[in-house]
Specification:
By secondary structure, the protein is mostly helical. The protein has four helices and no strands.
Length: 124
């Protein structure tokens, strides 16, 4: 049986919540090991990965179950384009702040990896 549009949307939002949790956990580890600036940098990196995914989910799943396949495809493409642009913009904004590059990238990469790991933790 195929999941309902509501179940698909909830799965997407669970993924994003999991990504934010991974970003928070990464920041906590950096807080304990390297201090406040490293922790803030790691959390910002995680948010740079998670926030565009949230925007993508809003756009991509807005028409799910409500419109035609062509509308769904258009919404997915629009969401993906916005996700890429937002990721670049967020990186530019964060890079202008006082950050530590290593923790920033670690937070970003671990949060992205969380997207793939959700298949292990969440079943549809």
């Amino acid at each position: 049986m195929q999941p309902s549009p509501r179940q698909v949307r909830l799965s997407a939002y669970k993924l994003i919540a999991f990504q934010v949790a991974v970003a928070g956990l990464t920041a906590l580890v950096f807080q304990l090991l390297s201090g406040e600036l490293a922790a803030k940098s790691a959390f910002k990196g995680g948010l740079v990965a998670a926030l565009p995914n949230f925007v993508f989910a809003l756009f991509a799943f807005w028409t799910l179950g409500r419109g035609s396949a062509e509308q769904a495809k258009t919404a997915m493409m629009r969401g993906h384009s916005l996700k890429l642009i937002l990721t670049i913009v967020l990186f530019v904004v964060v890079m202008q702040q006082q950050i530590v590059a290593g923790p920033l990238m670690t937070g970003f990469v671990l949060t992205l990896f969380a997207q793939w790991a959700t298949a292990i933790f969440f079943k549809h």
